[in-house]
Here is the input.
Amino acid sequence: MDSVHRISRAKINLFLEIKGRRSDGYHDIETLFQEISFADQITLRRTQSEYSVLKCNNTRLPFGKRNLCIRACDRLREAAGWEGAVEISLEKNVPLGSGLGGGSSNAASVITGLNELYGLGLDNAAMERIGLEVGSDVPFFIHGGAAIGRGRGEIIEPLPSLPQPLWMALIKPRAVSVSTGNAYQWIGAGRRAERALDRAQLEKKFADGDIEFVLDLVHNVFEPVVAAKYPILENYKKDLEAAGCLRVGMSGSGSTFFGLCASEADARAAAAAFADREDLSLAGAYHTI
Here is the structure.
């Protein structure tokens, strides 16, 4: 085997709450990750080079040690004793700074792809540990699907997939990209969690395909504080609601908004309403995995 290909899917946070600040400086969170069909494409090829290299269609992507794909290679080399190198070809579709986890998904794809390409024999638990050294969201992308994330987001509790995909329209304002670190600073240290997730309830509701429950669940602690810094974001949320979306939420620390819809046709119609908007770097219809 000379190469492997990975579909490196994005995620949305259907629910995101902060439980408190930890002694190590990180925050304990409780979130509901949901993998979606929007994706980057990654091909990993064996190389005789001494160093791993990254080729990408997006020149704004950090390269070298700042890139999560290269960091994933380095961590895998240290943890698994792998001494090779790889050529990474990345077709980048997920916008940078969008709250969709594109970089973390790419890192997870590199870890799972190298495990297959070089026959390293790592199980999911081992790959999750390596992924956590790269980023807090990476362990989720080793699993994919739907899952509760606790701790820094790395404690993963998988959930059943919805029986039928839930369709949505996604939009990302071109002018607003939010640093996750800044978003945590804006929250402040003294905030108390307002809502919590019940795993048993989620397992039943997801297995039953209870869409009304999912709609009522949508919550993001970052949304009001990010919107306070960027008041224009409220306009984008209202635009999605006016386009017929049943419930609108912000993913991660922003600035992408997802509008959940009753059907594929409704999601495509909502996304089409934004197709010619030059103020958006993303407008499309996608579904849960």
Q: What stands out?
A: The chain has ten helices and eleven strands.
